[in-house]
Write a structure and sequence with these properties.
- Two copies of one chain form a homodimer.
- In chain A, the strands form three sheets. The first copy, chain A, has a four-stranded antiparallel β-sheet with strand order 1-8-3-6. A four-stranded antiparallel β-sheet of chain A has the order 2-7-4-5.
- The first copy, chain A, is about 40% helix and about 25% strand.
- In chain A, strand 10 and strand 11 form a beta hairpin.
- Chain A is α+β, with helices and mostly antiparallel strands.
- The structure holds a DNA duplex.
Chain lengths: ~220, ~220
DNA sequence: CGTATGCTTGACAGTCATCAAAGCCCGTGG
DNA sequence: CCACGGGCTTTGATGACTGTCAAGCATACG
């Protein structure tokens, strides 16, 4: 299959909210995130946005758009990003012709569904510190599955800023700093220089009730 | 196709969290909800649960379980409920044989995905009153699509108790009562006798930034 | 060196959870 | 028929959690 690559600088939108008939991609390198900027409700001033999910190398970007023709959220590059462009029409033909692909797609979508459920439960029921701990553990596990963790010290690359954590967890940047400081003070995590170290996964998991996500075996679908 | 019906009294679990190889259903009559009870984190006392979504007549229950063999959440009957039992294996065979069914399944799952994104954004970014308003508008629209609204007065059946709203929106039952009182005082909604009336949809929508969900055309897939 | 950006910290205010009490509705039993 | 009890809702008082505003630092960059 013909493959087109595209390199996108950090901070650029790869897919726009509401975009129709857009292409879809595999994220080859770098981090991105799905997000939604909310129309201000009455009395809201600041324009907040909700980060719906992080996209890590290997993830699909815009599958929804390929399957339905329209995207319901935007995707933005968090770091510089290399994406691999797919052809939606060819993909749809393949989807129809190949039940195994269809299965794989459904499993991918369902896996995302489950993680979405988990996030909703965490944001709805947990306090700031627990939300943060949960987020970091989930991230760490996803990176592990892709062998992107430096095995020794549980050290992960961490290009996220406070404000990204805030938008992902539904809290203010200031309070993210407080929660992080708390975890640091308890010697549970360390953040420095674009890297994150989880010092005590067990204690973190106990703090927020995190349970590793067994889910379905991970495999690339494209 | 042979169809088995089952009637389930209110308050009973139809699917249990983590259940493997369970059946799946179409919700024929009555309301149910998907939910997750969280393991207590450190310092948590009460056992809270997060309602992930309401299930209304016509919705599928346990599709995830049919496709992957395992459920990641429980489903409980909110009212007395009539479900129609499907055969997971036959369904999977059909899924492989019939691309149109596969498409329909994917669209259903993706529609749920979008609603999940919306809920996350609302719970993460909105205050109590806005969350409640958004929930009620969304519910009203879903019921409209099924012709379950008494057309004249925007009056909906409303079997939910305060505590269900609280568990769905990530707030306390007490505060739900306050938020509802506020909406009532502003003459935006009325609640009585298991019914809900939306007095001013436009004002409600403006309050919480709700945008009707165009999504894909609604059609039954089974 | 000046400016811009992001992180951290403190003070204060608003939102919301918790606890508690009182009213309402309804089924039960006297 | 009416008293009683339990569940649900409403309301108030109080305090915890979190957002906002602001200032101080460190770093990067022109």
């Amino acid at each position: 299959m013909l493959v087109a690559q595209r390199t996108v600088p950090a901070g650029t939108d790869i897919i726009h909210d509401g975009e129709e008939g857009g292409p879809f991609y595999t994220l080859w390198a770098g981090w991105a995130y799905r997000y939604k900027s909310l129309r201000a409700g009455a009395g809201d001033r600041g324009r907040r946005q909700q980060i719906l999910d992080l996209l890590l190398p290997g993830d699909l970007i815009g599958l929804e758009s390929a399957l339905t023709g329209q995207a319901c959220h935007a995707v933005r590059a968090l770091t510089e990003v290399v994406v691999c462009l797919h052809n939606p029409k060819a993909f749809l033909r393949l989807f129809d012709a190949c039940p195994r692909l269809a299965h794989a797609v459904v499993e991918t979508v369902i896996r995302d569904d489950r993680r979405a459920d988990m996030r909703l439960a965490v944001v709805g029921q947990r306090n700031a510190t627990q939300r943060l701990a949960h987020f970091l553990l989930d991230l760490s596990d996803r990176l592990s599955q892709r062998d992107l963790v430096e095995a020794e010290g549980q050290s992960l690359p961490f290009p996220l800023q406070r404000r990204h954590l805030a938008d992902a967890l539904g809290m203010s940047g200031t309070h993210v700093a407080r929660a992080l400081a708390e975890l640091r003070a308890a010697a549970l995590v360390e953040v420095a220089e674009g890297h994150l170290v989880l010092r005590d996964r067990a204690a973190l998991a106990a703090l927020c009730g995190y349970r590793a996500f067994d889910g379905m075996g991970r495999r690339a679908i494209l």
